[in-house]
Amino acid sequence: MTLERDDLLQMFKTMLLIRHFEEQCVEFYKSGEIHGSLHPCIGQEATAVGACVALRRDDYMTCTYRGHGQALAKGLDPKQAMAELLGRKTGCNQGKGGSMHFTDPDIGLLGENAIVGAGVPIAVGAAMTAQLDKTDRVAITFFGDGAVNQGAFHEAMNMAAIWDLPIIFFCENNLYSEMTPIKDMVNVAQLADRAAAYGMQAVTVDGYDPIAVYEVTKAAVDRARGGEGPTFIEAMTYRLFGHMVGDAEPYRTKAEVEEWRKRDPITTFPKQLIDKFGFTKADIEAVTAEVEAELAEISRFALESPWPDVSKIAEDVFAA
Ligand SMILES: Cc1ncc(C[n+]2csc(CCOP(=O)(O)OP(=O)(O)O)c2C)c(N)n1
Ligand SMILES: [Mg+2]
What we know:
It is built from 10 helices and 8 strands. It has helices at residues 5-30, 45-53, 68-74, 78-85, 119-133, 151-162, 210-225, 254-261, 265-277, 281-304, and strands spanning 60-64, 109-113, 139-144, 167-173, 176-177, 180-181, 201-206, 231-236. It has a 6-stranded parallel beta sheet, sandwiched between helices. It has a two-stranded antiparallel ribbon with strand order 5-6. Strand 7 (201-206), helix 7 and strand 8 form a beta-alpha-beta unit. The longest helix is centred in the N-terminal third of the chain and has 26 residues, at 5-30. The radius of gyration is 19 Å and the shape is globular. The mean pLDDT is 97. The protein binds thiamine diphosphate and magnesium ion. Magnesium ion is lined by residues 144-146, 174, 176-177.
């Protein structure tokens, strides 16, 4: 699929929805509506949207605790997502999973995962299922730069390479693993360099450019679906918010954040749509108004949704 004009505007709309959705989450967290830990992907919307546009609805996906944006981009109903965050019965996990455990088999979402690197082998298993069942589904697994030193990550990469599994390893390199800079964790210039050791295709892409992200992911999806095996994508990105709500951010300078903010895709992508693709300011304003109205409805739905029944607390949680 080549991106049409409508696709581009839709990509902007999804990116903006994710941004406003998460800004609202931060407000709900501060007002005590959301409990536990909250890890927004503010600043990383272009990777989620660029990659997911290249996927089919029935393709498998795993992601991390920073996966709200990817789940929404893959097609998770934002009302169900917000209700889940607020612990309501109408949530995608019936309010029992919360921020770090969004799951929806209808869109291939096999779960967010709070354990660093743990979604990677799960996605390899899903890719193996697709290969054995000859379904032509592919799997994508999103993870951070902090996951690449996990043992399970190496095993999963190697297994996918030797068996030519239909999987995309999508690393969002946002330069920090929690509070640790990437340069203190690995001794290679780019994480993509690691893929050669497994005999795997790899590419590094600007994660602040949704079209570039789409293009590399589309190539990887075509390769996987065509039986040509896995690809490792390293997207260079940056979170414009702390690691989680409440992060005092002593490990980075305000100047560094401001430097990245100048390239914030939420402001630069619509400019690109106007300058290069012939959209008007009115088109952008209309999308912005639609997203604002949608978000008000999403929040209202979640706030008005009922709580789960306490007597059902253990249902669907553990296998009998
Ligand atoms: C196995 C494991 N070790 C440590 C942690 C604690 N921890 C939570 S988030 C995180 C940083 C992960 O960084 P990265 O993979 O780069 O993802 P990012 O948060 O930058 O999106 C760590 C170490 C964990 N959740 N799981
Ligand atoms: Mg990181």
